[in-house]
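Minutes, methods subgroup
Present: GH (chair), OT, SY

1. OT presented the first of two proteins processed in the latest run. Sequence and structure tokens recorded below as shown on screen.
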Amino acid sequence: MAESFSFFQKVNTDFDKAAQFTDYPPGLLEQIKVCNSSCHFTFPIKRDDGTIQTIHGWRAEHSHHILPTKGGMRYSTLVNEDEIMALAALMTYKCALVDVPFGGAKGGIQLDRREYSDSELERITRRYTYELIQKNYIGPGVDVPAPDFGTSETEMAWILDTYITMAPDKLNAIACVTGKPIEQNGIQGRKGATGRGVVYGLEEACSYAEDMKPLGLSAGLQEKSVIVQGFGNVGYHAAKFLMEADARVIGILERNGGIYNPQGFDVEKVAEHRAETGSILGYPGAELIENPNDGLELECDILVPAALENQLTAENAPRIKASIIAEAANGPTTPTADEILHKRGILIIPDTFLNAGGVTVSYFEWLRNLSHVRFGRLDKRFEDSAQHAMRRAVEKATGYNFSEEERELIHGADEEDLVNSGLQDTMITAYQEIRETRMQYRNSKNHVDYRTAAFINAIHRIAQSYMQLGIFP
């Protein structure tokens, strides 16, 4: 079954489906939906062998209803204008959904990073940053990039260094980009934030016994079998935190194949094996999945697509055996696949919600950079003293002496504790709001799934921002 939707058309189809449940003027809905601005630029780069290559880069700012705009920067051969605009739009809805005050943006460079040396990647990143500066597509109050597919904190450090050399506002220049190394004013917990957010979201979704019963599942994540597609930053951390939540990660899929063990994997050991050998393949005791697409169709409770878009399609959707699809990647399910999976009674937890952990913690990093104060610095020692005073009072009143291990658990919140606490609260609140919206339309003629409910909530929040600006009545 052929699907002719472009990625951006797919996002707009989801938007239109949700917009029919609102009563906002058509002009306002159109303004929310369109991409406000996008820029395609090219520049030459000198390769290590002396040859010159032309590099193609993009940056799109989907919505300026609130500033700055925010979105990752990816390096991939699939990068093009449609993909960047679609991802920028998803960022707009994602930020609105979790109540993070950013407009959506996204950037990317069309390349396969494996074909370039580190020095070449540095030159490309710095020149890309220069282009963003020249075109006013970067700045603490303008547009704030972050890591995405194919990039990491290393590229963010290069962006920061390049921006600072040209920034008129040196004081707040460190807030021009997030996902930075800790040593470069990054924040504790950012690297694993998207994966951790996936698990917080799944924990909340699976906590409702009445929602799990139709799927034939019990409440909670304990002992649920999980297959994760993609073992990059998001997939690795999602798998790691799922394992720590007592779920069984029985399958891990990469582009060159996958591994399967119904008893579950120790995710950390799989990561160590990959670090030693360069691949997850050949992991001891694992069954080889030669075609990673076949791994998507294995029986499991939860399937976590954590790679790229359009992984679940009209072709493979009828054969998916998972009870829950947890969209850790952006746009992993095509519109036709979405319909097929819903008709089959499979619960899809949408990317607009589940992938929001990264931007939530990026928001915390941005705030930290602007305030120039590390979270927890002002009150950690006070909390430590209060906690230990309470412990001594309990020991004195009861005669019970806490062990050294128990005493280590009693401490004030440090930065990572506060970041994780804020992320967890954000994911729980957002899911509860989505679920409440879905329940409101449960008896409507048109079925409202979680994706549509998420878009409805995002539209409401963005529309309120526009109306407060006085642009629309």
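2. SY then presented the second protein from the same run.
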Amino acid sequence: MDRLIYTALTGLSARQRQSQVTANNLANAQVPGFRREIVAQEGRYLDARRLADGAFEARALVGAPSLSTPAAPGKVQATGRPLDVALSGNAWLAVQGPVIGGEVKEAYTRRADLSVTSTGILVNGDGRVVLGGNNAPISVPPGAAITIAPDGRITAQLPDGPAPVGQLKLVNGAALTGRDKAADGLFVAQDPLPADPAARVEPGALESANVTAAQALVELVEEQRGFEINARLIRLAQDMDEQGARLMRLDT
């Protein structure tokens, strides 16, 4: 009977993790360029081992071992804001990522609601420093209005006329396929990816998250029902165990 309880208990753990992932998707449903996560559910069997009395012990468990990030993009919505860009196709924006081993890693995101800090550095909506074609931060002249071309080239409107500032580093996201997303929502490759000259952006627009609040709420309800079913299975196993014990009890 403990085998049934063990299976149900691991099912509860997997459902709990799935609910946490879906809740995170729901919390980020309004974040531009957010890519939702799904839990890879699977059933597994532990290897049977021989006990001292010659019997075998084996338990089946429910696993939720890894996360997957669907590649489906969100919807592109026009904003009319010059510093908003929607990444076309499989293009990804390079930004300064997390510090790993004392080194700032290059990371990639689809979030491109850009702005200029008080020190003239171009950042996205997460506050991540945007990288240029030379893998360095892009500096904008203070107070200058800037425009972004479809190929990512940035031009500042100065009193003497337009002047080039730099170019967004856009990479091909095919190399990121199959990689788990980091906790901060960024994707990090083992080595920095080269700039893709064919990558394009759509100025004055943003890509929405590829998950909707309604979709995430429905998934939460389904996961809650699954959790309740596993909990009932544990109670049923307990009742069956108690009934079996009563049948085996000898009256004295």
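Chair's summary of item 2: The longest strand covers residues 91-100.
Next meeting: continue with the remaining queue.
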